């Protein structure tokens, strides 16, 4: 997928994303609009995550909440990917569904390692602001080569995850990804670093379009942010869990 001749792995930032259309209003994308929508969607994630958390510690089996939440989020993302005009109505559904999934995996992690999810949230928030600071003062410049490396790494990581997930249906346990060995920990560290640097790509693409893209595109920008932030949180949570088991 290309954007001004630049490839991007995030489906929210495709060339189609930035194409102008007469059906859009004359208002342009603003930073405040993206921030507000991102905050609103994160609140929806928190609502269903908290509800799932509550059910878990009341003794309810939340396996289906977690599983269905994951699949609904995937389906919503696929629809948004292929028809971007659906971002506005489907993004709240995506956020609520993702909350069920995150609430489930976080509750399981907290039961075994108390307060681990809170630590993961703290690390995710800190990483977000560190990446934003680095982007603003241009310590790390988002060059074409930098984007190519991060995008290639992201695609590789997701491909490995998909393959290992498919193999799990055949009883094949890919321990070098899901285990607690040093290789598995190293893979998790790399994935967390790539997810962190992916935030820089999100900042870059949104910064280029502020005041240029139609205001309706703020929903897609928000979706892109959510994808990266949730990915980062999951990687951090998995890494902390592995380290807790290991040590």
State mean pLDDT (0 to 100 scale): 88
Q: Provide the helix percentage.
A: over 70%
Using DSSP, what is the number of strands? 2
Largest sheet: 2 strands, antiparallel
Alpha carbon gyration radius: 18 Å
End-to-end separation: 42 Å
Number of helices: 9
Low-confidence stretches: 1-9, 15-23
How much of the polypeptide forms β-strand, as a percent range?
under 5%
Secondary structure class reads mainly alpha
Q: List the secondary-structure elements in sequence, H or E.
A: EEHHHHHHHHH
* Strand arrangement in the largest pleated sheet: 1-2
Q: What best-fitting shape do the alpha-carbon axes yield?
A: globular
Number of individual domains: 1
Q: What does this protein structure show overall?
A:
The chain is mostly helical. The chain has one domain. It is built from nine helices and two strands; from the N terminus they run ββααααααααα. Strands 1-2 form a two-stranded antiparallel ribbon. A hairpin with a 2-residue loop joins β1 and β2. α5 crosses α9. It is globular.
Task: Provide key terms for this protein.
mainly alpha, two-stranded antiparallel ribbon, globular, disordered N terminus, about 75% helix, about 250 residues
Can you describe this structure in just a few lines?
With 247 residues, this protein is mainly α.
């Amino acid at each position: 997928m290309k954007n001004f001749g630049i490839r991007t792995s995030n489906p929210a930032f495709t060339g189609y994303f930035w194409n102008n259309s007469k059906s859009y209003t004359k208002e342009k994308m603003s930073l405040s609009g993206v921030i507000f929508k991102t905050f609103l969607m994160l609140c929806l994630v928190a609502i269903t995550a908290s509800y799932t958390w509550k059910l878990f510690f009341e003794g309810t089996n939340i396996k289906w909440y977690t599983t269905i939440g994951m699949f609904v989020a995937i389906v919503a993302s696929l629809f948004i990917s292929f028809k971007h005009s659906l971002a506005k109505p489907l993004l709240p559904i995506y956020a609520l569904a993702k909350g069920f999934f995150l609430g489930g995996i976080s509750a399981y992690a907290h039961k075994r390692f108390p307060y681990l999810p809170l630590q993961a949230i703290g690390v995710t928030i800190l990483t977000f602001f560190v990446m934003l600071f680095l982007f603003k003062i241009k310590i790390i410049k988002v060059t074409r080569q930098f984007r190519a490396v991060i995008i290639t790494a992201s695609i590789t990581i997701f491909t490995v995850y998909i393959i290992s997930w498919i193999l799990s249906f055949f009883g094949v346990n890919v321990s070098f990804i899901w285990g607690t060995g040093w290789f598995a920990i190293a893979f998790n560290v790399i994935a967390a670093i790539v997810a962190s640097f992916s935030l820089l790509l999100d900042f870059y693409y949104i910064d280029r379009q502020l005041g240029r893209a139609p205001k309706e595109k703020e929903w897609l920008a928000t979706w892109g942010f959510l994808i990266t932030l949730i990915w980062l949180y999951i990687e951090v949570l998995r890494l902390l869990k592995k380290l807790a088991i290991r040590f």
